[in-house]
Amino acid sequence: MIMKKYSLILGFISALTLLSSCEKQLDKVNPNAVTSENYFKTSKELEKGVNAAYTTLNGSYLVGNCYIWLHDLRSDDFVGTTLADDRGEILRGTHGVNNSYIERVWKGFYIVIHRANVVINNTVENDPDDSGNQLKNRVVAEAKFLRAFSYFELASLWGGVPLITKPVSDFSGFVARSTQKAIYEAAIADLKEAAGVLPASYGAADNGRATQGAANALLGRIYMQMNDYANAKMYLEKVRTSNLYSLVGNSNENFQEETEFNKESVFEVVFSPNPSAAEDEGDDYAQGLYRESTNGTRQYDMNTGNGVVLPAPGLKAGFEKDDIRKKTAIYEVGDTWAGGLMTQESWKKYTLSYKNAMPGNVASGINRRLIRYAEVLLMLAECENETGNLPGAIARLNEVRSRADLKAAKLSLYPTAAFPCNTPDEVLKAVMHEKKVELAGEQVRNRDIIRWRAAGKLALLGGEPISYFQASKHGLLPIPQSEIDRNIALGSAGVPAQNPGY
């Protein structure tokens, strides 16, 4: 599998990007700079280029750390106790233009975009070892997927951002912000092209690369954020009817190392238990139970029970009596673990606790599943409801609740006493509930709340779930001040350089 068992060769990329992993260097240079657009001579070299984009995705600026914090702390799944520094600002809504976590995620995605652009705009032609340019075409499609994923995340978090589709070698690469709609449309165009080329699956050596199913699922996500449920449904149905994906019988298998690339995984980011051999922007450490873990969204001192981010009361109360997914997601007081009995609630997903690992900076090789088939089904349920097919929506909801371990626990199917499903609003309320308990702590809730807020549907959750939210400020993240200082063209095309409230 890519980046899992071998050391990714990244030396060549420094000559292309003039980038350093350290923030000091990122502040000094144009993060889209290259020295040669003609570096790649063969399709195999081109493949190394897209590998570099993948490795940025799993680095500490993105899925290896800051991306996880940014999404989960803006959701209603967590509450803080003693969380300090810039993460505490995000949790409390007091973040500003110099927040380091916000800045790192911005930079991280533009590094992915730059590396993808270098691959997409390559000059490799007629490689004798690549019959019919099959490898080249696949690699370019992977790069388009990664670029689309990056632009989707940027647009959903910041609104309009600079749209850069070619590698640049000087400050002429600074461009104005495009609109959010234009960014979404660019990502959609990339994904449609990628879906037509990417394979349905890979052999074991290439597991972790983008597939056709991943491209179609991401198209569904984007169209949903654009309130285009008909198109979202069309692409999500392609994933469902491909018959390549299904739900694993045991929910825990989605969060463990030994069951990676299972039949429920649509797209996952690969991590190595030996971080230094696999990434160039930060170590990958086990999450949740491990104090000051650099790849953790939740940090706990298990020896004292002094957690700094805890499952929110609303999340804990949201699990129904027979819903065993609570045990998959959360440790409760009195539960056992390697160090004895839990004295405080804490997070369980993606931790090494199932291996009886002790707390600390413990290297973890657990891949992060960014898109699961369960989410595809729940997105489809929402799309069916929004397009008037309530029975179809209920069927997709019940497909998730019929997972083997949930069925064995006798979890009731919809409609239930708590969630009658007679009207579109009642079905959407069931969708909201099911997504919360199925996907808790998986960087989905923040995006859902943004979408439901825009559609005026938060009353179904009992009102605005984010206590600090002010429409005049918190709808979008601030453009990092370092980007405003560096990019003199940022606000030159009708979209202001900075978002409202900052």
UniProtKB/TrEMBL annotation:
PROSITE patterns cross-referenced by the UniProt entry: PROKAR_LIPOPROTEIN
Record-annotated SusD-like N-terminal domain positions: 98-224
Keyword set, alphabetical order: Cell outer membrane, Membrane, Signal
Keyword Signal appears in the UniProt entry: yes
Leader sequence residues: none
Domain RagB/SusD: 348-502
GO cellular component, one term: cell outer membrane
Gene3D superfamilies on file: 1.25.40.390
Compartments in which it is found: Cell outer membrane
InterPro entries documented for this protein: SusD-like_N (IPR033985), SusD_RagB_dom (IPR012944), TPR-like_helical_dom_sf (IPR011990)
Keyword Membrane in record: yes
Principal subcellular localisation of the protein: membrane
Family indicated by similarity: Belongs to the SusD family.
Protein name stated in the entry: SusD-like protein P2
Organism: Dyadobacter helix
Taxonomic lineage of the native organism: Bacteria, Pseudomonadati, Bacteroidota, Cytophagia, Cytophagales
